[in-house]
Amino acid sequence: MSPTGAVARRDRVTLRLLPPSWRDAAAVAVEDRMFRALAVLRVVLLVNAVALNVVRRDNADHQGAMWAVLAVMVAWTGFAVWAYAEPRRRRAWLLVVDLALTAAVLLVSLPIKGDEMRATIPGFWIMGALLAWSVHWRWRGGLVAAAVLVVADVAVRSELNQTNYGHLFLIVIGAPIVGYLCESLQRMAAERDAAEREAAAAAERARLARAVHDGVLQVLALTQRRGAELGGTGVDLARLAGEQEAALRALIRQQDTLGPESADDATADLAGAVEALGHRDRPRVAVVTPGTPVLLPAHTVAELVAAAGACLDNVATHVGDAAPAWVLLEDLGDQVVVSVRDEGPGIPAGRLETAEADGRLGVSGSIRGRLADLGGTAEVATGSFGTEWELAVPRSAS
């Protein structure tokens, strides 16, 4: 398999079996957007917390300590906005310190505000650390952070009323949900990124295939025809050109058929299978196929190639081992046609019927029988010009 094919296959397996890597470019891009939104939210929550504490400053037993805590919150918010802005700074220590500081601000609310505390100093400011854990460590991180903050909040409450319970319940439920949504967005972004890469690679392969078909393949085909006419070393040159043309066509088809392994594993490329007939020594076979894959069920491909091989066996037997033969594959959209032609003396009138009546079923069984089983037809034209078999299979039947 080519390096390009190996990379594409690895990407598909990773995409299908594993969650997107935490360092995947698409996943990091989603996380960056989330943290930019969180930075704005942190500032809004900080302004709200400071304003509420200023308005309710008379409720604090130790106002100096309260101002100090608010100053720490302001400083940490500024630092957190800067630190979370770059992926390389989003280390475990940063998130642990963020959560620990938030829990500590919650815990000091009781001694600063006294037993009559109606609201903690940070208030909704705790959502900054909570959501940071949810965004970076997904639903599991959100659940852990929620548990830590709920324990800290309950520890400073003299009683747990319905309002407080509602707030804590939302924290426990909301944080994992945010984490799950973030992970889903990252997965979607990674899948979209992989799909776009694969589509771009497929488009580039198609462009290269067209360029090769319009240039190199035509030159090789011309060299193969003219070289045989020159004789001598030209025959060897023609043979080599034919081999290289077949190899290049097979490579183009291989790249074009790279795709996810799925229920379509039973599909095979008829063009590639027919191309292999060109490697026969007896008779000498020239193969012409489309520049793109011709995908059919594997059983249909095997039977068509076997029927074409039987036609070539007849050429070797009745015309000669060194006789030339030609195989042409055409994809007509609603059907595929494989034509096998030679320049022998043709089939005498009545020979096929006589052979079938005598129990020799080479043509009726190996060729026509196979095509009949596939829902197709096997037509023969013969005369002084030679013999040509036309093996046609409708796509609806395959």
The Cα radius of gyration reads 37 Å
- β content, as a range? 5-15%
Number of strands: 7
The structural class is: alpha+beta
Which assembly state applies to the chains in this document? Answer: single chain
Number of helices, counting only DSSP H or I runs of 4 residues or more: 12
Overall shape: it is rod-shaped
Strand order of the largest sheet: 2-4-5-7-6
Structural domain count: 2
Low-confidence stretches: 1-22, 259-265
Measure the end-to-end span.
28 Å
Q: Give the SSE string.
A: HHHHHHHHEHEEHEEHHEE
How would you explain this protein's 3D organization?
The chain is an alpha+beta fold and 398 residues long. The chain has two domains: 3-193, no CATH class; 262-398, 2-Layer Sandwich (Heat Shock Protein 90), CATH 3.30.565. 64% of the residues lie in helices and 11% in strands. The protein contains twelve helices and seven strands. The protein has helices spanning 3-17, 25-55, 63-83, 92-107, 109-113, 127-155, 162-230, 233-256, 270-275, 298-318, 351-357, 362-373; strands at 267-269, 284-288, 295-297, 324-331, 335-342, 377-383, 386-394. The strands form two sheets. Strands 2-4-5-7-6 form a five-stranded mixed beta sheet. Helix 6 (127-155) runs antiparallel to helix 7 (162-230), helix 7 (162-230) runs antiparallel to helix 8 and helix 10 (298-318) packs antiparallel against helix 12. The chain is rod-shaped. The two termini are 28 Å apart. Mean pLDDT is 81; it is low at 1-22 and 259-265.
